[in-house]
Amino acid sequence: MGYYVVVEATSERIRLSPPPASRRGWAIIFSGLAGLFFALQISILRTRPPLGEALSSVQGAGDLLKVFLSYCAFLLLGVGFLVAAGLAWGWWSELEWDAMHRTIFRRRYLFGRIWRTSTLSFDQVDEIRVVRIRGQYSMRYYHLFIISQGRVWATLPGYRDEGAVRALRRQLLRFMGYPVG
User: Fold this and answer.
1) 124-158: burial string, b at 16+ Cβ within 10 Å, e else
2) What pTM was computed for the model?
């Protein structure tokens, strides 16, 4: 299984989207990291003197920045991980092959609403290519590239099983009416 899975397959439409469980998993991980940094921030605030006393001993702009970062560094990291959790949960892409209009739609969602849509006619697709990516620690991954006019129009990343990604490629080519080769 890759980053995208088939969520709807009929004779008129194939829709690929990341599963909500995958997005939820990353959101939970980032939220946990945010909680860890917030707990560290609370611990630091309990062990340091009040901010007013620290600011009274500041002599220059460089010292002010050091004091500010020593009091707020973990808070800023926690907020950053909360933003990452929100984006992991609420921002994703979806690809849809529509046989009625002979078009591929790529929709980008932001918190449940369509943020941006782009289309590609079946006639404009040059090829659908499987590419082997050598990942970290020599693990193999396969990406499915949809190529139009010599450029990659969309990528379906993260497949570990070569047979699964090749089967998906054949399914999409058959759906578009192209020869499977």
Assistant:
1) ebeebeeeeeeeeeeeebbbbbbebeeeebbebeb
2) 0.71
